[in-house]
Specification:
By secondary structure, this protein is of the alpha/beta class. It is 35% helix and 21% strand. A hairpin with a 2-residue loop joins strand 2 and strand 3. The two termini are 29 Å apart.
Length: 203
């Protein structure tokens, strides 16, 4: 699939890394919103497991100037507005939302807003390239807009005040993606963490 970038090169250097870096990780869905479902498997659980693993990987990197905050740490329901407000109110440096896909496809993709500036595109590219390097991953690329409208944006990436992206870690209704999610789980978490660390020049 085509990779769609909308770049504003005049703002290429607009991303300033603060002395105290705050990474906001968002596990999509939760509570009475399961997200995609395949039998007993619910997307919300996979999303949270990945976010917790990414947090652990970032903590293990040992950077005193980096703090990780989570929109949810358990099976809690949150509105999209609450997720965005949490990131904005905590002056997050970066926002990464984790999801699983559905609908009969295969592979991993990372979404940015329809009007993404260079920093947002760079963040998504670091993460997507790391995930795509994992053996057997089908690379669906970095995409802007939404799956149904290239001129719209997913709420959590379109309304956050910081560079943001939404990662779709394979399709919950694809057998190969399900097997790979289990086999490469630690690699997925490490790739997302590494992409974040690259963005804030800690790797």
């Amino acid at each position: 699939l085509a990779v769609i970038f909308r770049l504003n090169h005049t703002l290429e250097d607009s991303f300033v890394i603060p002395d105290h870096i705050v990474i906001c990780l968002d596990a999509g869905h939760g509570g009475d919103d399961p997200g995609a479902v395949n039998g007993d498997r619910q997307e919300k659980d996979d999303n949270l497991a990945v976010v917790l693993a990414v947090r652990d990987a970032l903590d293990a990197a040992g950077h005193d100037n980096l703090e990780v905050i989570l929109t949810r740490e358990d099976d809690t329901a949150l509105t999209l507005e609450e997720r965005v407000a949490f990131a904005n109110d905590n002056d997050a440096t970066l926002f990464i939302s984790v999801h699983r896909n559905s609908g009969g496809g295969q592979g991993i993709e990372t979404w940015i807003s329809a009007e993404a500036l260079q920093p947002e595109t760079r963040l998504a590219t670091y993460i997507q390239e790391g995930l795509a390097a994992i053996p057997m991953v089908k690379d669906r690329g970095v995409k802007s807009g939404t799956a149904s409208n290239p001129l719209a944006s997913y709420y959590v990436v379109g309304n956050t005040d910081m560079p943001a992206c939404l990662v779709e870690l394979g399709f919950l209704d694809n057998v190969d993606d399900l097997v790979l999610f289990e086999a490469a789980f630690d690699d997925y978490a490490a790739a997302i963490a590494d992409g974040i660390l690259q963005m804030v020049k800690l790797k």
